[in-house]
Amino acid sequence: MGFIVFFSPSEDKVISQADKDFSLSRMQIQHQQDSKNDTIKYCQDKQIKILNKNGYFSNAPQVDFLASLWKNRYLHGYREQILESYLDTLRQILTKHDKILLKEVYGAKNFTPKNEMELNLALQQNTTLQAIERYCGVAFQALNFTSLSEESKDFICNHVYIFSNLFGVICARDKIPFYKLKQGAKIPYLNLAKVYEPFLPLLDDFLSQTLPNPQDFIIDLRASIYTKIFTPKQQNFFFEFQKENKIVSHYSKFYRGVILRLLSQQSQWRDSQNIDFETALVFFSTIEHENLRLHSITQKKTTTIVKYDIL
């Protein structure tokens, strides 16, 4: 008997100290090169360049991190294509000051020092963090991963799969760089349907092998935009949150993070051999949180919908 957890990413990402240090080092190298009037000339677009061991600058990002992502032995070439399309889009935004693309990718109408800095940082692709630490939106704030015990962190790293909007399905422990890409972006080759196209058969195979027993299940903590991309055939729990009889999306993000935190803190969940579907149903029916109260449980094919009132 076993289970896994599906989780959504967030548009907000952590900029780590390593990101800042690397960005600063690139600026210093550029300043030194400019001041020495080196024969190596920068392109007019002032893209951030990467210094290789021979002392030459290259536009190519470091993509070594791709090799460690979930199922990358089957997906490496595809992920490289998606990543290059993304980086080309960033270059177009920055070199042409393309406000239409800026809004589609970043969600902003105008350029600001902040979004230009973040887009330049996204071009570097050189420093990485675990995905569960890189994302920092509402759900991840509620989870508060860094404050958890080592046992709880291990539970999350071993059970949680995040549906990234750029890298596809990744494990919580997979390391990814900083990036900015609005969820639901409609850019060719970067929309969710296109990104996830080769993932769907792999997901089906993975789930059938990982969860082969009738009592195995999925805890689906994804937002609806991701549930529309892929619907598991296995038994699964899906969660809705309402306040004054109205479904509230912002609170839903927060309480999905709360539920994941509660799960990770339960010793019985950390030993997944002791959890079957019926045991999970009892847990979600009697969940203890001061701001949540069970409203209803309904069944729709293989999906058990657990609805909570927010107090």
UniProtKB/TrEMBL annotation:
<protein>
    <submittedName>
        <fullName>Peroxide stress protein YaaA</fullName>
    </submittedName>
</protein>
<dbReference type="GO" id="GO:0005829">
    <property type="term" value="C:cytosol"/>
</dbReference>
<dbReference type="Pfam" id="PF03883">
    <property type="entry name" value="H2O2_YaaD"/>
</dbReference>
<dbReference type="InterPro" id="IPR005583">
    <property type="entry name" value="YaaA"/>
</dbReference>
<dbReference type="GO" id="GO:0033194">
    <property type="term" value="P:response to hydroperoxide"/>
</dbReference>
